[in-house]
Write a structure and sequence with these properties.
alpha/beta, about 200 residues, binds FE2/S2 (inorganic) cluster, Glutaredoxin, single chain, 2 domains, six-stranded mixed sheet, about 35% helix, 6 strands, Arc Repressor Mutant, subunit A
């Protein structure tokens, strides 16, 4: 860790490449900031973390934290505290496809353990690891809010619900072969209507 980041040395944060806002992000930041009173502008830290992560290959480096701190005139440690609290913010580089497996009770009762087993073997990735080809990172998370359609996973920004080992394997195969995947329920139910 660079000594150029007082207060953030010896922490969980990793150094990445130089980071500056893209023109598109700068426009987005103006819109975000307009939603908060000037004296409460630091409340915009969450959307800015999300924006930085999106621009930085889906993870937040020390450089991202620094820039958000400057943009919101907010101590770096405060930005880092927020970033480290939520599992949706990645503090290390991740694979092209970040697979988050819900392991909370409703999904677990519906077989999330089997889904985890399938994903581990099909991606050749253990939990909290990235595959050698950089295609996948696999993590386990708590409830993602789609309990009635469990077991479910999130891959980058998309939900995949009503999973079994067969359709999970198909989803991974499609990613490996650059084929599109159907998002949402894999058994064709609309929203969270009763399963047939
Ligand atoms: S328990 Fe899995 S989405 Fe809520």
């Amino acid at each position: 860790m660079s000594s150029g980041h007082p207060g953030l040395t010896n922490t969980f944060l990793e150094k990445g490449s130089p980071f500056k806002w893209s023109d598109e992000s700068l426009k987005e930041i103006e819109i975000i900031k307009s939603k908060y009173p000037t004296e409460r502008i630091q409340s915009a830290v969450m959307p800015l973390l999300y924006l930085a992560q999106k621009q930085n290959d889906n993870w937040l480096s020390v450089e991202c934290i620094d820039l958000i701190s400057q943009t919101l005139n907010m101590p770096k440690i405060r930005v880092a505290e927020v970033a480290s609290f939520y599992s949706m913010f990645n503090l290390k580089p991740v694979g092209k496809n970040l697979i988050q497996i819900c392991r909370t009770s409703p999904c677990w009762l519906r077989g999330s353990n089997k889904i985890t087993k399938t994903i581990r073997s099909e991606t050749d990735c253990d939990i909290n690891q990235t595959s050698d080809d950089g295609l996948f990172t696999v993590v386990e998370v708590e409830c993602l809010g789609a309990c009635s359609n469990g077991p479910m996973i999130q891959i980058n920004d998309e939900f995949f619900e009503d999973l079994n080992q067969t359709n999970t394997k198909q989803i991974i195969d499609n990613i490996k072969n650059n084929k599109p995947n159907k998002v949402g329920s894999q058994i064709g139910r609309s929203s969270s209507e009763n399963a047939k």
